User: Fold this.
Amino acid sequence: MHVNHPIWLRQVSTPGAVVFAIMFTLESLARASLATVIPLQAYALLQDARDVSLLYFGVGTTGLIGSFTIPLLIRRFRRRWVYSMGVAFLILAAALLATGTIAGQAFGMLIRAFGVASTNIALSLYVMDYIRRRDLVRSEPLKLMFGSLAWTAGPALGVYLYRDVGQAAAELLSAASAALLLGYFWVLRLQENPAVAAATRPPPNPIRSIARFLAQPRLRLAWVIPFGRSCWWAMFFVYPPLYMVKTGVGELAGALLVSAGNAMLIMTPLVGRAAGRYGMRVLIVGAFIASALFTSMAVLFFEVPWAVAACLLTAAVAAVVLDAVGNIPFLRSVHPYERPQMTTVFRTYIDFSELLPGAVFALLLTFFDMRAVFLASGLLMLTAALLARHLPRRM
Assistant:
């Protein structure tokens, strides 16, 4: 007997844009609920913004090296198990962070970084399997719009739980979100596309993968764009909350600023429409310039916390534009037969965006105050704008 299932039920159970948006949202809640708590916990334990930067640098270095093992794991254990392992690591990381110790903080951040890398690479491969290239300009903004719910509520809710409920309350929310994601993923029973040859080929040596990536100009440029954007968000999640604490405004104000910045992700479908009409190059270059301008302006108003918040919040609007379309140049440029290897190299922008700024900011904070962090972030975005001008017009 034929049964007509409701449309919404088919959408949430059949692999496609909505399913991947839901998966991204659950993963985002697991991450966002701790995104602002982690630097605050680290600051409470280490008592110095420079030491927090050094901790992020160490975690970023180790996570970057570890991420190159993921194609080997996908080859050995298949993608579904690597994705499941990544989600399980998010749960374990929450447990370690809940201990409130320096060792638990460091290992929790490290396990979390590897878990995020595993889920990020596996989900990107699923997206490229199931979403056609011409549909990416709609599916990517939809994914971010769904995720905006988590990134808007998560940072403020996490700090509220951490400050007013208990040390482990935010970690419990993160772990519960990850557990729900794991259950949903196994209900879906996603299959790997057998037409993608790279899914079954042995991955080459990581050094060769990097060389192959660097030999392709479009992939190099496709890496720079999300790297610049991710550097800005890495700064935004750590230093504005610390700035609010140091200026006496309070932890909750910093968390609300981060949540407000992420709330702008609700606009991503509009960005997708604009990209379809005007082209991605115009949007990407303009967004980098706007973000550079308003981030640098925070230096001028450094003694007025709410003016700094306004500048950074405006810069966040521009960063959201980059979130909506920043990964599409890579998704459209990578060859199907080398997706796992090139995706692994491509997503190193996440590790480098935590690694390099953390090192630079630690050095700057040795001699200057946080104005140097905001100015350096603005200059980086301006540099990325100059490079993004080389995107093909038809892209």
In short: The chain has 19 helices and no strands. The domain at 14-188+197-388 is CATH 1.20.1250.20 (Growth Hormone; Chain: A;). Residues 292 and 382 are 5 Å apart (CA to CA). The chain has one domain: 14-188+197-388.
